[in-house]
Amino acid sequence: MNYKLLGQSGLRVSELSLGTMGFGTEWKWGADKEKSQQIFETYAKAGGNFIDTANRYTEGTSEKFVGDFIAKDRDHFVLATKYSLRDRSGDLNFAGNHRKNMMRSVKESLWRLNTDYIDVLWVHIWDSWTPTEEILKGLEDLISRGMVHYIGISDTPAWVVSQANTMAQLRGWSQFIGLQIEYSLLQRTVEAELMPMAKAFGMTVTPWAPLAGGALTGKYLKGEKGRLPESSARLGDRSTLITKKVVEIADQLGVTASQVAINWTRQGKNQSMIPIVGATKASQMEDVLGCLKFELPPSAIQELNEVSKIELPFPHKFFQEAGVIDVLYGGMKDQMKDSRF
User: Fold this and answer.
1) Which residues sit opposite 148 in a β-bridge?
2) Quick one: which H or E segment has residue 180?
3) For labelling, which of 225, 334, 336, 340 has a CA lying 20 to 30 Å from the CA of 34?
4) pLDDT band for position 233 (50/70/90)?
5) Active-site position among 57, 83, 183, 220
6) Which helix (H) or strand (E) holds 151?
7) Residues 336, 339: Cα–Cα separation, whole Å
């Protein structure tokens, strides 16, 4: 395992993050404590130190398991959890981005994790109601108290993240150093706004679902059952075409489809990227870790890019029109060499 700095910080994290949404069986799937510990130990023995959980995962069981697993060497691990999603139904103040829920949720996460501090606290999902300033000030207060060390943001529009980091910079508050988004060969729409925004602010992207809920492993092509409903977009004609290409390249390279799909995510777009990888069996984690032993050749990346390409929205598609390029750059764009891009 190699390591990277997380965003514009000095925090050292492993090049894969362990996703623990499946630690616990409260959601009628996942792994019990014994199997969860086997997954955790497989990851840790490979050098992994970046653990991802959340207050909502398996009704809090994920945080409890993680707290137990890291207790013997707490300071070694970079522990990331999230707040925003509900801990109680039927009560608006037990969910959302606002300060009241933030403080309560973090306090309860610390208790479940059996720790005094959280290394990285993620805003889980933007609720569209809470003022950006309120969120940032609350997070800054948690940092000043030593309860949280760094902050990141997940599943939020690019304009909101840009507003927040700019506001934080101007006021001398902590900025978001990481962006957590769904990103895989089956989900590339984030390439239009979110990923360029993250690069501009020096944020590390930590993609969730790099295997698209297991679809990119190729198991559904073989008729295996899984958690995805038959109506899922991850199982449509486009997804099948992309997955077949992943399997084809995996066969050519002598590796697994999972390893190909994750490496496409790891190697993509020339920016800091740390995929979040989960498992419900230790053998699955061993398979995933195999992606660290090789890199995809440029030809394979090009094939995968082509089969999974998306139509960019306005104005990005507009920028690529020949007439626009001609009048915008005076017909000399190809003669301009700019080292910044």
Assistant:
1) 118
2) strand 176-180
3) 225
4) confident
5) 57
6) strand 148-154
7) 10
